[in-house]
């Protein structure tokens, strides 16, 4: 339940240095936009870990004259802050410049005709990021940042991680 002090922060729909789906230009915009926002959420989790208690990352519909577009937002409940909110929020607001900074390939959305197709696309992209950032045969990570990305993705998406290549 939200209280009077809860607030939101708009984080955008994709890494700030990347192209993203555009209303009126991208075929099947609504579904491609939903997929990008879901992947951006996963990319932020890869980089920063799961949000602390009292912060929820969720898709938000924004109504515009030309149609509705979605962005990722952080819903923040400061009453539930254990002292970790400020640092996490600062990192969220910085965001990610490029998909590869979180271990993701730039999304190339095929025809996403329904919610099932979007979910499969996102699952495959997260699995791909887990595989991309996996340890080398000796168990070490290259580059070293892959250890954080891989660990955060495996922790946040254990069902997907279970099906990723070891």
Describe the structure.
With 166 residues, the protein is of the alpha+beta class. The chain has one domain. It has five helices and three strands; from the N terminus they run βαββαααα. It has a three-stranded antiparallel β-sheet. A hairpin with a 2-residue loop joins β2 and β3. α1 packs across α4. The protein is globular.
Lay out the secondary structure.
Layout: E1 7-12, H1 29-48, E2 55-64, E3 67-76, H2 85-94, H3 115-132, H4 145-156, H5 158-162
Antiparallel strand pairs: 1-3, 2-3
Helix pairs in contact: 1-3, 1-4, 3-4
Give me the strand/helix succession: EHEEHHHH
Helical amount: 25-40%
Alpha carbon gyration radius: 16 Å
Strand order in the sheet with the most strands: 1-3-2
Strand content: 15-25%
State the shape.
globular
Distance separating the two termini: 40 Å
Overall pLDDT metric = 93
Tally of DSSP helical segments: 5
Strand elements, count:
3
Low-confidence stretches: none
Number of domains: 1
Structural class: alpha+beta
């Amino acid at each position: 339940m939200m209280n009077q002090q809860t607030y939101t922060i708009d984080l955008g729909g994709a890494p700030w240095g990347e192209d993203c789906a555009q209303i009126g230009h991208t075929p099947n915009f609504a579904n491609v936009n939903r997929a990008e926002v879901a992947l951006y959420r996963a990319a932020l989790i890869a980089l920063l870990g799961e949000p602390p208690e009292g912060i929820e990352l969720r898709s938000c519909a924004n109504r515009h004259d030309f149609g509705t577009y979605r962005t990722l937002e952080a819903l923040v409940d400061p009453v539930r802050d254990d002292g970790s909110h400020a640092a996490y929020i600062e990192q969220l607001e910085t965001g990610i410049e490029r998909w590869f900074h979180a271990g993701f390939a730039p999304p190339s959305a095929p025809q996403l005709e329904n919610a099932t197709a979007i979910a499969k696309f996102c699952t495959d992209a997260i699995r791909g990021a887990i595989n991309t950032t996996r340890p080398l045969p000796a168990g070490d990570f290259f580059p070293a940042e892959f250890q954080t990305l891989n660990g955060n993705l495996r922790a946040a998406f254990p069902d997907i991680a279970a099906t990723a290549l070891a």
